[in-house]
Amino acid sequence: MGEVYVNQKTMSLDVVEGDLVVEHGSVKATGPGNTVKVSGQVRLQGDCVFYGSLEASEVISRRGDLRVEGDLKANNIELKRGALEVRGDVEAKSIRVRKKITALGEVTAETINAGGSFLVEKNIKADKVSVGGSFKAESDAEVDYIDVGGTVKIRGTSKSNIVKAGGTLKTEGPLEADDIDVGGTFRAYDIVSVGHIDVGGTVKLAGGIVERKIDVGGSFRSSEFLEFGDIDVGGTVRLSGGKGRDIDVGGTLRSERGLSFENIQVGGTVKIGGDSEGKSISVGGTLKMRGNLKLNGRLRVGGKAAIDGELEAGEARVGGKLEAVKIIAQKFIETSILRTRLGAKANRIEIRRRGEVSGPLIGDVIIIKERSHVDDIYGDDIRIHRGTRTGHIYGRNIRIEPRCDVDGVTYTENLQADQSVRMRITPQKAEKLPEPPF
To answer: What is the percent of the chain with per-residue pLDDT over 90, rounded to a whole number?
Structure first.
C-alpha cells in the first residue's frame, strides 16, 4: 500500500491501494462501472473533479470544491472550505460540507451537515440533516431530524421525527412528522400526519391529522377536513370542518363546515357553516352558525349570537342579541335581545333592561327587567319589572311591577300586580296551566 499523488492534471485510475492525494487536479475513473476505488483516504486540496464514480474510506478536503460526475461512496466526507457536487448517488455515514451540497441522485447517510445549501434531486434517507441556509429535496425525504436555518422544501413524501426551519417549510407530498418547528411560514399541499406544530407566522395545510397541538403566532388555515388536538393561534383560523379538542384564537375563527370540539375561546368573531357540537364556546365579539349547535356546557358571547338552527346548551349568556330557531338550556339563558321562531326554554331565563323577545319563554324562574318587550311566558316563578310589555303570562307565582302592559295572566297560586298594570283581559286563576309549546 502507498500513496498516489495527482497535481494540476488529469490521471486515469481504477484501483488505489492506499491513499489518493489530489491538488487542483482531476481523476478519470477507468474501473468497472467507470469507478475508481480507493482503499484509504482521498485527500483534496483546491478544486477537484472525478470523471466517473468514487469509492473510498474517507474523502477529506482542506479547501476547494469537489465535483463527482458519477456516484460517491465513503464512510466520511468532509469539505472544510468548499462545496460538493455529485451527479450520481451519494452513500456515506457522515457528510460535512462548509458551503453547499448538490446531489443529482439519491442520498443515503447517517448525518449530513451543510453550511450553505443542500439540494438533492432524488430520494434522500438520513438520520439527521443540518443546513445553515436552505434544504431542497425534489423527491421523497425520509430524515429523522431536519434542522435548517432558512428554508425547507420537499416535493415528494416526507417522513421525519423532528423538522426545524428558521424561515419556511414547504411540503408538496404527504407529510409524516412528530414535531414541526418553523420560525416563519409552513405550507403543506398534501395531507399531513403530525404530532405538534409550532410556527411563528402562518400555516396552510391541506387537511389531515395534528394529534397534539397547533401553536401559531399569526394565522392558520386548513383547506380540507382536519383532526386536531388543541389549536392556539394569535390571529385567524380558517377550517374546512374538523374534529378536535380546544380552539383558542385571538382574532377570528371560521369553518366552512361543522366542527366537533371540546372548548372554543375566541377574542373576536366565530363563523361556522354546519352542525356543530362541543362542550363550551366563549366569544368576545360575534358568533354566526349556519346549522344546529349543541353544547354540554356554556355559551358566552359578548356581542351577537346568530344560530340558523337550534341551540342546546348548559347555559347561554349573550351580551347583545341571541337568535335561533329554538333554544334549550339546562341551567339559564341571559341576554338583552332574544329572537326565536319556536321559543326558548331554560331553568332560569333573564332578559336585561330594555330587552326584546320574539317567541315564547319557558322556564322555572323567568325575570324580565325594566322596559322590556316580550311575547308569551310559561313559568313557575315569574317576575315582570316596571314598564314592561308582555304577551300572555302563564305561571304559578307571578309578580308584576308598576306601569306594565300585559295581554293576559293565568296563574295557579299567587298573583301580585300593581294597580297601574294594564291587563287586556281579566286575570284567571286555574287548577292547571296549559302545556307550553315544548
So the answer is: 98
Query: What's the number of domains the chain is made of?
Result: 2
Final residue before a domain boundary, out of 47, 71, 95: 71
15/26 Cα distance (integer angstroms): 15
- Residue 438: CB atoms within 10 Å: 11
If asked whether residues 124 and 15 sit together in one domain, one would say no
The DSSP 8-state label assigned to residue 32 in this structure reads T
* Tens digits of residue pLDDT in 317-361: 999 999 999 999 999 999 999 999 999 999 999 999 999 999 999
What digits encode the pLDDT tens for the residues 41-82?
999 999 999 999 999 999 999 999 999 999 999 999 999 999
Residues of the domain holding 82:
72-429
Asked, for residue 230, whether it belongs to a domain, the answer is yes
Q: At which residue does the C-alpha cell 341571541 appear?
A: 322
Judge contact between 338 and 316, C-beta under 8 A.
no
Phi, psi of 412 (to 5 degrees): -110, -25
Same domain, 403 and 359: yes
> Is 241 in the same domain as 281?
yes
Per-residue model confidence as pLDDT tens digits over 186-241: 999 999 999 999 999 999 999 999 999 999 999 999 999 999 999 999 999 999 99
Do 121 and 147 lie in a common domain?
A: yes
Q: How far is CA 360 from CA 151, 222, 378, 404, 422, in A?
A: 60, 40, 8, 18, 20
Domain co-membership, 108 together with 133: yes
What values do phi and psi take at 31, rounded to 5? -75, 180
The answer to the question of residue 53 being in a domain is yes
